[in-house]
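RECORD TYPE: protein structure
NAME: histidine kinase
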Amino acid sequence: MSSPDSPPVEQGVLLRELHHRVNNGVAAAINLVSAAAVRVEGTEAKAALSDVVELLHGQAELHRALAMPEGKTLIDAATYLRKLGSGMRRSWLDRMNIRLAFATESIPLQSQRCWRLGLIAHELVTSAAKHACFDTRAGAIRIKLSRIGAVVNCVVLDNGSRAARDVSARELRIRNDLAKALGGRVEHGFGAEFTSVVLSFPLTERERQANWAMATRRLRSPRRPKLPAMHQAELHPRHQGGADVLGELLSPSHRMDAQ
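PREDICTED:
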């Protein structure tokens, strides 16, 4: 699509153009299949084509959510991930009978960094759906987004029975490269009832100021409960290299493996 030496602006233009063309292609496919569903005779055939149309709509929704954002406005990561999750449910998770749940808090991020977070979350959910092996149990995947001081943690958990995942080298490279672009890391946790993958990365100065302003507004609002002390004190931590925040995120029974 572009050479490694292409400037970021040119790469952004090419990605948006690619997104536009894929969008048009999916829209054309939806129109063609919808027209065929009207013309075809037979209840089963109509139902099958209508199902394909719904699947294509889900893919279009997911593709829009994964598009590179324009502008430099801060984006609420929680809202972005939930929108992405809606596309994943509609496009394939519902058809696999896998439930996707969220536990998120509002965290303003710069648009490009929020987009990278979404790409990682999408890859982790896709990997869990492919490799977790849910057997006879009801499949469940959960995305948890939280902030501990100036560090963001995004955890993707699943209740699959297969702890060791046959993840390709390409998948590992993509998630690790995206995490490094955020200044963060990815780690695995294995428990008796679920497997988790944790993405941890620090806020930029601009993001830290925005989160601090949001926390201050909440503290001043009489209708909202007070924030926990860790959120008040740790947005400007005295020691960035203190205790590992990932250790606080998962239960002591989990074994952590760096990826």
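COMMENT: The chain has a mean pLDDT of 80.
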